């Protein structure tokens, strides 16, 4: 039962506000889902870049070691 103080314009305004809040909530949920997907993608990319960086560092260290060995042999 609706209180007498809430007439049709009040109900209409309340209904419009609720519709707006529901739409906003759905929009934010979708935005949040997209942001989480992007974050996961960036984390994966970061891990791959760190692996490549470690591999490059190892190769450079191996080259430096070989150069030092050649230097000492000369």
Can you walk me through this structure?
The protein is an all-alpha fold and 74 residues long. The protein is rod-shaped and about 100 Å long. The model has no long low-confidence stretch (mean pLDDT 93). Helices cover 89% and strands 0% of the residues.
Characteristics:
74 residues; 89% helix; mainly alpha; 1 helix
What is the number of helical segments per DSSP (H or I, 4+ residues)? 1
H/E order of the elements?
H
- How far is the first residue's CA from the last residue's CA? 99 Å
Taking the sheet with the most strands, its summary is: none
List low-confidence stretches: none
What order do the helices and strands come in, and which of them pair?
Blueprint: H1 8-73
TL;DR?
By secondary structure, the chain is an all-alpha fold. It contains one helix and no strands. It starts with 7 loop residues before the first helix and ends with a helix.
């Amino acid at each position: 039962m609706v209180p007498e103080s809430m007439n049709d314009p009040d109900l209409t305004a309340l209904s419009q506000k609720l519709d707006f809040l529901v739409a906003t909530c759905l929009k934010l949920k979708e935005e949040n889902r997209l942001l989480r997907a992007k974050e996961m993608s960036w984390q994966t990319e970061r891990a791959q870049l760190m692996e490549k960086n470690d591999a490059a560092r190892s190769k450079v260290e191996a080259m430096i070691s070989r150069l030092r060995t050649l230097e000492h042999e000369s």
